[in-house]
Amino acid sequence: MARTPLMAGNWKMNLTHVEAVGLVQKLAWTLSDKKHDSGRCEVVVLPPFTDIRSVQTLIEGDRLELGFGAQDLSPHDKGAYTGDVSAEMLAKLNCRYVTVGHSERRTYHAEDDALVNAKTKQALAHRITPIVCVGEGLDVRQAGNQVEYTLAQVRAALDGLSAEQAASVVIAYEPVWAIGTGEVATPADAQEVCGAIRGLLAEAFGADVADRVRILYGGSVKSNNVAQIMDQPDVDGCLVGGASLQIDEFSAIARFYALPAVG
Ligand SMILES: O=C[C@H](O)COP(=O)(O)O
């Protein structure tokens, strides 16, 4: 099965709702001007919660060929959970995606594998596609344990999912040491772990599921390295942080297929 590549721009805690509208307008205009083919790459933005309504209104009102989603969600349905935002709230805003288990949530908010699993299930229950983030820190990489460490995170995040649910998940492999550092993993590093993730999916849920799941790479992706990364057989897109805030960079990343051939 051909997997449509996905480029998701994680804005993290950047841009007010006014700035968000400006960025989405310029991004849509640039992609349209360059005749972006959305059949060759799906483009998605993941703004902070406070921007989502404005982004939704713009994208849906102007029928822009952009998807949008959120950066986190509550594991709870509703009630006394101050500060949380529920899956139902996101679904009502037509969020198509939500990241779960980003390393910044794991590090700064002590999110563990059980919570990531609960959030993954909560997203799926509301028909929002979870982008499940996994990846090792520098110490694990230096010890050469990146594959087993990352696979353990994938196993925990997908624990209890049916094959049908697993098939609709997106997984983002983001080595923590490569996030926001300018230290991009080599294409071979990315392929090693993404290929192992696909192998695990085949073992746990069957070859058909493994073939359908999109696996992204994230960590200092830029227009000058995206083509090499996307050239790897088990990399189906990128989760882009810093470069997603720069129109020219992100639109070039989204149009990786139009960049000069690798090698
Ligand atoms: O979610 C995105 C990742 O954390 C990558 O961020 P970055 O592209 O700024 O390294």
UniProtKB/TrEMBL annotation:
Residues binding substrate: N10, W11, K12, G180, S220, G241, G242
Asked whether the keyword Isomerase is assigned, the reply is yes
Q: Which InterPro entries match?
A: Aldolase_TIM, TIM_sf, TrioseP_Isoase_bac/euk, Triosephosphate_isomerase, Triosephosphate_isomerase_AS
What class does this enzyme belong to in the EC scheme?
isomerase
> EC?
5.3.1.1
Gene3D superfamilies from the UniProt entry: Aldolase class I
Q: Does the keyword Chaperone apply?
A: no
Q: What residues sit in the active site?
A: H102 (electrophile), E174 (proton acceptor)
GO BP terms in the entry: gluconeogenesis; glyceraldehyde-3-phosphate biosynthetic process; glycerol catabolic process; glycolytic process
Which keywords does the record carry?
Cytoplasm, Gluconeogenesis, Glycolysis, Isomerase
- Give the catalysed reaction(s), semicolon-separated: D-glyceraldehyde 3-phosphate = dihydroxyacetone phosphate
Q: Which SUPFAM superfamilies does the entry link to?
A: Triosephosphate isomerase (TIM) (SSF51351)
Q: In which pathway does it act?
A: Carbohydrate degradation; glycolysis; D-glyceraldehyde 3-phosphate from glycerone phosphate: step 1/1; Carbohydrate biosynthesis; gluconeogenesis
Q: Name one GO cellular component term.
A: cytosol
**GO molecular function annotations of the record:** triose-phosphate isomerase activity
Taking the record's annotation, the residue ranges forming a coiled coil are: none
| Predominant place of localization | cytoplasm
Q: Which domain of life is it from?
A: Bacteria
What is the annotated localization of this protein? Cytoplasm
Say what the protein does: Involved in the gluconeogenesis. Catalyzes stereospecifically the conversion of dihydroxyacetone phosphate (DHAP) to D-glyceraldehyde-3-phosphate (G3P).
Family named by the database record: Belongs to the triosephosphate isomerase family.
Question: Assembly and partners?
Answer: Homodimer.
Name of this chain's protein: Triosephosphate isomerase
> Which organism was this protein described from?
Microlunatus kandeliicorticis
Q: What would be the name of the gene that encodes this protein? A: tpiA
